[in-house]
Amino acid sequence: MTDSKAETPYEDEQIRCPKLGHQVSFGYCRVERQDLPCQKAIACWHERFDVEGLFRLALTPEQFEEAFLQPPASKMVTLVELIERAKKLVQNGKLD
Predict the structure, then answer these.
(1) Which top-rank group of organisms is this from (predicted)?
(2) Mean per-residue pLDDT, 30-51
């Protein structure tokens, strides 16, 4: 199984997200970065269930490495990427 979008039995479970500062479901954490889970998902969910095992089954080794083993991008880089993505959506008429 290498489908990060496949639902799990944990989709609706919620925790307080240290990144966003409010409650989020595991379903959100699992796809927070489009095709990849949030980089903090293993750290946040490991006490509830074998989240690392779940991701190792659901993701390819390359996706797992990209999601969890690479250093995070700086906040400035992330902000610039989000702005660029929003600009493209506006240009394509997908965001008003």
Answers:
(1) Bacteria
(2) 93
